[in-house]
Design goal:
The chain is an alpha/beta fold. It contains 15 helices and 18 strands. The strands form five sheets. It has an eight-stranded mixed sheet, with helices on both faces. Strands 14-15-18-17 form a four-stranded antiparallel sheet. A two-stranded antiparallel ribbon has the order 1-2. The N and C termini lie far apart (about 50 Å).
Length: about 450
Amino acid sequence: MNAEISRGPVGGHERFELDALEMHGSLASPVIESMNFLNEISQRFPEALSMAAGRPYEGFFDTEDVHRHLRVFEDHLRSVHGGDEARVRRTILQYGRTKGIIHDLIAENLSVDEGIDVDPESIVVTVGCQEAMFLTLRALRRDDKDVLIAPMPCYVGATGAAELADMRVLPVRESAEGIDLDDLVRVVTEARAAGLRPRACYVVADFANPSGVTLGTQTREALIRLAEEHDFLLLEDNPYGLFHAPGSEPLPTLKSLDGDRRRVVHLGSYAKTGLPGARIGFVVADQRVGRAGADGTVLLADELAKIKSMLTVNTSPVAQAVIGGKLVANGCSLRAANVRETELYQGNLRHVLAELARNFPQDAEPCVTWNTPGGGFFVVLTVPFAVDDALLEDSARRHKVLWTPMHHFYGDGKPRHQIRLSFSYLSPAEITLGVERLAAFVREQSAAL
């Protein structure tokens, strides 16, 4: 291993430094740096109002809920295990099963809320959805020919997980209606002609991060048919699907449409609907895996558990118990448990759209436009100037408002004329103030063109 040695001694010894060129290539990737940058800038400018973080609203947080949900789960275990107190304590406090201890409750939750019927043994409970993505990509990536397809712009956690798994990402165009299916076919066809193996396509069907786009039912069905025809998996990430407009009919998930074809690996998280601090996610991987020379098959979930056992050993049983208790307390329906949150997010969405219209009249300069998603956490603005991280810092320092440059969702560092606004974390008064500060920043930058 090559290393740099500093010129001056430290405590009588030469100071050893690692050579960045001999460390994993992902450490120099713009995608990997994005998450840290966005977290650090909010800490550097604590007085700036943040319309950048896609976090759940904190006004409903109550630490007593943690204790209450834990007690509910304890009672649930007593019922399941015939009052065996030693087993109850062991389940919650001891090292746990790698695939998780609330897999049966998650399966019931998916059935109640999403119409997804799966064997609990096909579920692996993970440390957030981020681990679920990494485990899946690590398992699918055999060599350099294996690639992931993703619509751009794309959630940085997905492309970042691919970087860590040494899996190349092939971009597909995204339109106002969602993933461009014609472009998807072109990318897959050209990849195979080049000797590559498209293993999976990452997609957020409901209120995608960052674009807010939702796929129509026909597009969802066509996407599954294409996956079957062109032999790749769909990695369905569904963090925002519960937060649609009250009274509107939720669209079926890709997994519920998939049926026995098993082309969809469903990635889930309770960060938005349960408790973000618990860091509980999961993956539904009911695909069969055959082994040469072996009798029968195993589930992909079992293969993912092997990797997890060497990565995080198991997901915190205490954290699982908190989420499990919330599931039990609500009849395994987090759709029902999140009525007030859904109303708040929908109200914030209406409010941010109204404030944008008030601050950026369409018949006035500068010309600023935005999309109108039906739910989720995000709105995307198009502005007259290219946006980079330096402008974000200027906005934070002088105008005291944070937002996210869209280049972070392309992974190439190239400034674009778009920014992502998050409205989930704020009160209506904060949204009003944030958009006013943003408008002052945009007018200043536009006048300098």
